[in-house]
Design brief:
heterodimer, A: 247 residues, 10 helices, B: alpha+beta, three-stranded antiparallel β-sheet, 2 helices, 17% helix
Amino acid sequence: MRAAFRESLLRVADDELTIGHRHSEWTGVGPDIESDVAMSSIAQEELGHARLFYEQIAGDEPSGADRLAFGRPPAEFRNAVLLEQPNQGWEFSIVRLVLYEAFEGLRLSLLARCGREPIASLAATLGREERYHGLFADAWLERLAGHADGRARVQAALDAAWPYALGFFETTDADRALLAGGLLPEPADNQREAWEAAVRPIFERCGLTVPAGPPKQGGRRGEHTPDLAQMHLEMTEVWRSDPEARW
Amino acid sequence: MIPLARGGAAPAARGGAAPTASWIRTLEAPEGVWAVFLQARRRDAHVYVGDVHAPDAEMALLLAKENYARRDPCVSLWVVPAREIRATAGDAAEMFEPATDKSYRFGGSYRQQQRVYRGGYHTAPTEDDR
């Protein structure tokens, strides 16, 4: 049970770290200065959330959070594959943010009901910040999809992202253990239903079509794309230069 | 900071009437520039803190939140199209200059009272009190 719970916290932390790192790549090159600042700020907050969860996992181990974030090989990462993909274009990052924030909001609300402190309280608190991220993403999506040209590009991004987004709900033995142990109040299928009910109207309101097709999974089992390996090299470069340094 | 336009072209598209009096100005701002006002605490006034570029009010508020309220305390934001703002012209400043001694109007004790009312955030006297 302990291992299963750790696994579920790693998913949260790794999701936040990878999407936070991808968002941070917009710093300095966002479509306008204000959105650049906003996206960078969202990136910082996701990384902040990642750190809090890594700290919970690491417990008393010194520099344990850094070690978890930067000292593990890509195959030990448990993030959903969608989040490691390069930004490609602003529309892709926005679509991904819409998909992820809806998921993250639901996941935090489930975690807030897990009955384990301080995780439950932490999850309840962090939900507040995710709300703004979702509003920002939805507002940008609506405006990008407001014209035919933009809508076509957003649709292409949605077509590409959707199957990977279904990978949020990939299950492993850990999920079965958590369900049986009462730490996870809802099975993955219910979570996915609730998430779809939240995101479908956002896209449909913008005249977009949610694609069909099987989920693309693997991330929760450590099976990642080469994009993670490449991102990982860059993300861990400074830490690897001196793993014992105190920052 | 947004420059002032003398006799300013009013934002006709928004239906605002052009100021006619010579001492009134509109802010010389392109469409899509929003002035941001931040309220730090519930009983404070909203204070102008800068601008954002945005196509509409919702986006302006979202961007203002992250650009102006991510560090310092904030409980509420206002945004308004910058060129909707009417201002006194720079050379009208002398109308604010008292010609006779009006120190009886200063009402320093009222300011002290305001501070008490705000919940004692500033208890030490400041330059303003003297």
